[in-house]
């Protein structure tokens, strides 16, 4: 090989070395970007990416856009279906890739959304192991945040869910719990609309308390306490109790069981009639 | 030109001579250089591609962030902003759909004939995803489960009836999910006991995994212990009754009683499953009987 060539080769080799370093640096940067937020480029997304990066000469921009648009529309419909079926609305989901290798992929998910009126934020780590063509997925480090100012009964349950990484149980219970709360508020609202002179909802229709006042007897008040309990294992049970506020003197004048044992009788009523009818019959009894 | 003249005509001639000479045997000259040139070019392309990808990723990231916050996108003047917007939307939808799948959404899809839907029920135990079960449901004229791979010992039709599948398919799926997850959990417990404690004999178990009889020996005392776990509530993955029998003495507990640290079923199962490394203390639990 002659001198000229050797020189050219040297120059080229140096150039290649530098380029390799640059490429490696860019690849690192790209990986780091994926740690912040991971995007999944496949199908039409890949086409679009190729177009943007100037590598697709086959398709025009219009083509790329319209195909992507079509897919987005389909996905929007799909999301609507899933949301309806799941009963859970998701606002956002972001993914970070913590570790990515041949046999293992670790990603961190942060999902926020709401179910009826309950907002939640759930974080977890998803590990995918690939072993002999089988893929195993595992959730760990589950963390659930809820603005649970009035969800006292939820705390024990959340601790249990986090301890056992039982995210499926969390979402199932959240759904049932909010369904039961919706039942309550629907009933409260309905009764207040029907008997506005007797029923009042001091904490709004989503609270646990409904009060019943007799228009001519301001001293006597009946309280309905309707709570929805959640056990640590995720059992949801509504509890409805009748509490009375009747002046001592009235009780002395009318020592009948109907007044004194109201709470007990209400429970039998509840068992026989169910919540809505039981509440209505109590209201009817007060009705002037 | 300066350099050329200072070096002189002769040297220039010699350079030309070399060039002509080298032109005479092109293969030897060019192969290496060609290779290197091609490599350099490929690398340059890769670099430009990466740069473009990183740029796109950054723009997408910015758009996604404001999209997730529910902010309206400021209209950028870039010629590709419409495409980028679409891509951000696409990625958001993709992530949301995946999230629905991960959190145990029912992955509903319309069947090809359009008559019904397919739904999936995911099961998991302690964070580990287990089997997924599928149901094909006709929607018209009445809701009807046409095909499914739910095991026969799960009373599918009863559950459908009890939970008014016609009016409230969600409630039905929730209860079904509860049953399937409880079963998957019990099955997994049995698998873990077998895997982690080879010295424990599984004397009896059934497909529903609602009864589990284990036999093991307390290390130092050398006493055989028979432990019966009864899961009479099929919607739970924890036993309702634990029955421990050893050398004629019997201790029973059920989950309804006050939780005691020793006989609480959850603790009993958990301690068996979690004490993996402490081989000698493995079956500390039964020794409380004495």
From TrEMBL, chain A:
The keyword Coiled coil applies. Residues 2-85 form a coiled coil. Pfam families: CENP-P (PF13096). GO terms for cellular component: chromosome, centromeric region; nucleus. The keyword Protein biosynthesis does not apply. Keywords: Coiled coil. GO terms for biological process: CENP-A containing chromatin assembly. It comes from the Eukaryota. This is Centromere protein P.
TrEMBL record, chain B:
Keywords: Centromere, Chromosome, Coiled coil, Nucleus. The lineage of its organism: Eukaryota, Metazoa, Chordata, Craniata, Vertebrata. It comes from the Eukaryota. Belongs to the CENP-O/MCM21 family. This is Centromere protein O. It holds the Pfam family CENP-O. Its main location: nucleus. It is found in: Chromosome, Centromere; Nucleus. Residues 33-80 form a coiled coil. GO terms for cellular component: Mis6-Sim4 complex; nucleus. It comes from Solea senegalensis (Senegalese sole).
